[in-house]
């Protein structure tokens, strides 16, 4: 079975082995440098001593007379003070006249074969095998009064002596090396532990698996996802985000770039929408690359309270609008079917009663009256509004209001030929539908007698004007400034469950859609009682519209 060591142990052993090899190499280099320096220093020291001995007064005369005892008496005091391994005096015939370490070698030949240059008058430094061993030595000539060479002075240091000095220094260096190696062991262990902590105690294979899983997860998500670091540089983006924002560059070319170079973001994207705090944000409406999206943001925290970046997920706002539109249509269809079934039962019961009483003329008049009223509203709406969806909404609201006992009255001057390009059909239907629902609820709340709700829609004067007037209880002046904020409502609890009126959602959505379209809303009193909501949505000029299409 193959032994698998943890990553921390592998890294520790690698650092230790590398440190040992590095220390060994460094020690060898230092030893070589120190050894060369020691040979140079001792060689120069031997040369100085040999030169000084050769110039000693009386030495030349004693060498010339071959006065061996006199030479010994002259040189022995110097030998006692010198750190050299030996001092040797020889004559011109290369015979020993004095040897500090081997007196028995007197009159024997000098060994080494390096005397030729000395006899020629030069001072040399050499490493040779001598009578007592290999040594680093310097030889200097002894000159007489006529500057003729009459002898040789040799001062040397045995290589064994040099090796002892190197060994002593190496032992000292070895102690420091062991201490340094111990410190390296401690450092390596702390370093590997810190690295493992930065890796959340995971093995490299586990991290690689997590990276691949994250990559696969991001690519499998339907929502667009991208992440940035603390310097606001892009560190990850999935395929859905690139497709939703129409980014043609591959991911590897985007990583590391500042987010502003990759996406066109609103001016307040990094301030008001908040990278200034660590809190998460959800379901924020913003614009990325000229596309409205609903965005979520979650901070990346490697340490508690210290953010290292942010992850953003977003989806196209049109997808939400499409789903909302579909749900609204289903609700309208269900309401219409319910209302039509209820009215059909009433009509059928009325007709059945008239027929049973054999009042056939009254039955015919009843049928004609019902058909004429419904057909008149249908003809008016179809002729005045070109949007089929808006026609369906108004017919549904008309029937719904009539079922509740409220009459919805259309101003004869109503007209909508073209919906402004700054607002979508779904948003426009939401604005009108919420205003009508609020007006009907306010009318019912006021009690008897029930007054009609009036609707005026006009696209004249280069702006879309929508006015909804009711005869309800009105809106308090103190509530008007905050009426369009989320959660603020003038209704009592228990509103329309589907529209979210009890939560103050309706007018909040209306204000949001109108504001995005560059329009405005006004609230005024409807004398003698009630409220008038006026919505103004401008039509952009033809030139600006053409530029937008380009």
TrEMBL record:
The keyword Chaperone does not apply. PROSITE patterns: HIS_KIN. SMART domains: HATPase_c, PAS. GO terms for molecular function: ATP binding; phosphorelay sensor kinase activity. GO terms for biological process: regulation of DNA-templated transcription. It catalyses: ATP + protein L-histidine = ADP + protein N-phospho-L-histidine. One of its GO terms (cellular component) is plasma membrane. Keywords: ATP-binding, Cell membrane, Kinase, Membrane, Nucleotide-binding, Phosphoprotein, Transferase, Transmembrane, Transmembrane helix, Two-component regulatory system. It is a multi-pass membrane protein. It is found in: Cell membrane. The chain crosses the membrane at residues 12-34, 173-192. Residues 427-541 form the Histidine kinase domain. It is an enzyme of class 2 (transferase). PANTHER family: SENSOR PROTEIN CREC. This is histidine kinase.
């Amino acid at each position: 079975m193959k032994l698998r060591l943890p990553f921390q142990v592998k890294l520790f052993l690698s650092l230790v082995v590398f440190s040992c090899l590095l220390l060994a190499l460094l020690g060898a280099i230092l030893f070589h440098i120190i050894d060369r320096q020691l040979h140079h220093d001792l060689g120069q020291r031997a040369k100085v001593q040999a030169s000084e001995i050769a110039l000693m007064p009386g030495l030349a005369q004693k060498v010339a007379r071959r006065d061996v005892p006199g030479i010994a008496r002259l040189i022995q005091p110097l030998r006692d003070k010198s750190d050299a391994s030996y001092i040797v005096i020889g004559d011109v015939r290369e015979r020993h006249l004095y040897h500090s370490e081997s007196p028995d070698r007197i009159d024997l030949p000098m060994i080494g074969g390096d005397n030729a240059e000395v006899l020629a008058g030069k001072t040399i430094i050499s490493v040779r095998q001598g009578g007592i061993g290999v040594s680093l030595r310097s030889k200097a000539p002894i000159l007489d009064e006529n500057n003729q060479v009459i002898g040789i002075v040799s001062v040397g240091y045995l290589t064994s002596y040099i090796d002892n000095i190197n060994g002593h220094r190496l032992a000292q260096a070895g102690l420091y090396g062991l201490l340094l190696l111990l410190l390296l062991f401690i450092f390596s262990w702390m370093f590997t532990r810190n690295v493992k902590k930065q890796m959340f105690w995971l093995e490299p294979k586990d991290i690689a698996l997590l990276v691949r899983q994250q990559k696969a997860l991001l690519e499998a998500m339907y929502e667009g996802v991208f992440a940035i670091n603390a310097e606001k540089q892009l560190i990850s983006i999935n395929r859905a985000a690139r497709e939703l924002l129409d980014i043609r560059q591959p991911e590897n070319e985007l990583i590391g770039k500042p987010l502003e170079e990759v996406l066109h973001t609103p001016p307040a994207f990094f301030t008001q929408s908040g990278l200034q705090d660590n809190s998460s944000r959800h379901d924020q409406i913003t614009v990325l690359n000229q596309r409205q999206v609903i965005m979520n943001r979650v901070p990346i925290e490697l340490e508690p309270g210290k953010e290292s970046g942010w992850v953003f997920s977003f989806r196209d706002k049109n997808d939400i609008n499409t789903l909302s539109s579909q749900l609204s249509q289903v609700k309208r269809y269900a309401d219409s079917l319910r209302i039509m079934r209820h009215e059909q039962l009433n009509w059928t019961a009325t007709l059945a009663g008239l027929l049973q009483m054999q009042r056939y003329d009254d039955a015919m008049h009843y049928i004609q009256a019902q058909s004429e009223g419904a057909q008149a509203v249908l003809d008016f709406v179809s002729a005045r509004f070109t949007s089929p969806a808006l026609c369906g909404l108004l017919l549904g609201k008309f029937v719904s209001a009539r079922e509740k006992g409220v009459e919805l009255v259309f101003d004869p001057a109503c007209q909508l030929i073209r919906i402004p390009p700054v607002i979508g059909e779904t948003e426009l239907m939401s604005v009108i539908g919420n205003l009508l629902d609020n007006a009907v609820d306010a009318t019912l709340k006021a009690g008897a007698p029930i007054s009609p709700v009036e609707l005026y829609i006009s696209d004249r004067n280069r702006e879309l004007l929508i006015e909804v007037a009711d005869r309800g209880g009105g809106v308090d002046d103190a509530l008007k400034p905050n009426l369009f904020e989320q959660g603020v409502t003038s209704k009592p609890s228990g509103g329309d469950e589907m529209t979210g009126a009890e939560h103050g959602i309706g007018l909040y959505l209306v204000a949001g859609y109108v504001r995005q379209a560059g329009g405005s809303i006004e609230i005024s009193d409807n004398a003698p009682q009630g409220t008038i909501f006026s919505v103004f949505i401008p039509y952009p000029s033809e030139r600006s519209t053409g530029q937008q299409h380009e």
